Amino acid sequence: MVSYILYTALTRATAQHFSLPRQASFGKPWPLQRGPWGHVSDSAVPALVRGRHYKADQVTTGAEGSPSQTPLPLEGIRILDLSRVLAGPYCTMLLGDLGAEVIKVEHPDRGDDTRSYGPPFLKRGDSSSTAGGSLASTAAGESAYFLCVNRNKKSVALDFKTAAGRALLCRMAQECDVLVENYVPGKLAALGLGYQDLRQLSPGLIYTSISAEAHALRRSYLSTGLYAHGAIMAALISRGRTGRGQHLDISLLDCQLASLANIASSYLTAGIEAQRWGTSHPSIVPYRAFPTADGSIVVGGGNDRQFRVLCEHLGLPDLLNDPRYRSNRDRVQHRDTLEAAISQRLRTQPTAHWLAVLAESGIPFAPVNNLEQTFKHPQVSAREMVQTVDHPVAGPVRLVGPAVKYSDTPATIRLPPPTLGQHTAEVLCELLALDPKEVERLRGDKVIA
């Protein structure tokens, strides 16, 4: 998450310079003028380097809904999204939240696989659900799964297994800054749509390949999307300096291993095999969820001071004088007896009681909430983490909003998740300048939908 914020902050100075028009030289870096602190001066960067469809006078919406002349961080960047399911779509959604134009290419008949991942599905034009949206167990509309990672995208239904479809996709790639795909390695290359093929047409294209292994865990999909999102940001910054695109090879397995952090380090340095700890931390004790009289609460004694404060607030002074719990190393060694003592104490009162007791303690603690409790939490409302969008079929639908808050260039939901092929004609006519009659001919030939 730190890298997410860092990369997007970096784009504030250079986002509008990432996308090079076709008349620019991709092989020669632009001579960027730097200020006294090494920062690139916006005024010193030639206007030629601005995004292909960046509009200097475009007005965006600020944090309070007021007009702002400050462009979104990735405004002027166009993404060609060939990915499906979760890792790739999550990555491109994050880029779309930051202002990039995302063109999602889907199979004309079935679209993204997740459109059928349900129930629940959207009901058409019915927002009477008790959840405050329009979800129900019916295959009449889009799945809730699809909705979660496909906002801020335009859907183009295109069969690029046909010669005409491949030709259109190549033309679209020439008009885009980034391509994201997660097909089986070699499949797109066999169709003449691999990195080596498209770089000949667009040397500045950042071609992002996300690959999955059979044993990669589903929990790594979102972390892979985050890694891919950050990698694309870095590649855009690099291209802004060199004028050259590149191929990003991103594996779910690699991202899964990289996310193991201290678990991997413990094995590589000490040969310690991971164990099943439940909610417990493997190296810090106590730090886990404990049952209360009516629920569960997470408490943490992350260091000796926090452990002392925890014992004082829970009314367990005897633990402080027990040599078995003198240091974290001792507490880890005697995990079972210590956690049993804390658990026995916390079971005596309801969760609300312990929340009040620990309110001013300064140590980590929180209730374990279900989804209803989570989305009703005042902090979720205060930070506007649930936003309502107007779906083209179902009407008002609630979605989880962007996680990072920007003071000057807030991430926004500008487009609801699209229906299959909703923007096919728009993109082909506006981006590729196709005649409407040609679009209808392609539709009749089942190249598009």
Tags for this model:
six-stranded parallel sheet; 35% helix; 15 strands; disordered N terminus; 2 domains; succinate-hydroxymethylglutarate CoA-transferase activity; formyl-coa transferase, domain 3; CoA-Trfase_III_dom3_sf; CoA-Trfase_III_dom_1_sf; alpha/beta; 18 helices; Rossmann fold; CoA-Trfase_fam_III; three-stranded antiparallel sheet
Short recap of the structure:
The chain has 449 residues and is α/β, with parallel strands linked by helices. It has 18 helices and 15 strands.
Structure description:
With 449 residues, this protein is an alpha/beta fold. It folds into 2 domains: 2-259 and 385-444, Rossmann fold (3-Layer(aba) Sandwich), CATH 3.40.50; 287-368, 2-Layer Sandwich (formyl-coa transferase, domain 3), CATH 3.30.1540. Helices cover 35% and strands 14% of the residues. A 6-stranded parallel sheet has the order 7-4-3-8-9-10. Strands 11-12-13 form a 3-stranded antiparallel sheet, covered by helices on one side. The chain has a two-stranded antiparallel sheet with strand order 1-2. α1 packs parallel to α7 and α7 crosses α8 (252-258). The protein is elongated and about 85 Å long.
Relevant CATH superfamily of the largest domain: Crotonobetainyl-coa:carnitine coa-transferase, domain 1
Strand content: 5-15%
CATH class assignment of the largest domain: Alpha Beta
- Rg computed from alpha carbons, rounded to a whole number of angstroms: 26 Å
Class computed from helices, strands and strand pairing? alpha/beta
Strand numbers in spatial order across the main sheet: 7-4-3-8-9-10
GO molecular function: succinate-hydroxymethylglutarate CoA-transferase activity
Pfam families: CoA_transf_3
Family: Belongs to the CoA-transferase III family.
Keywords: Transferase
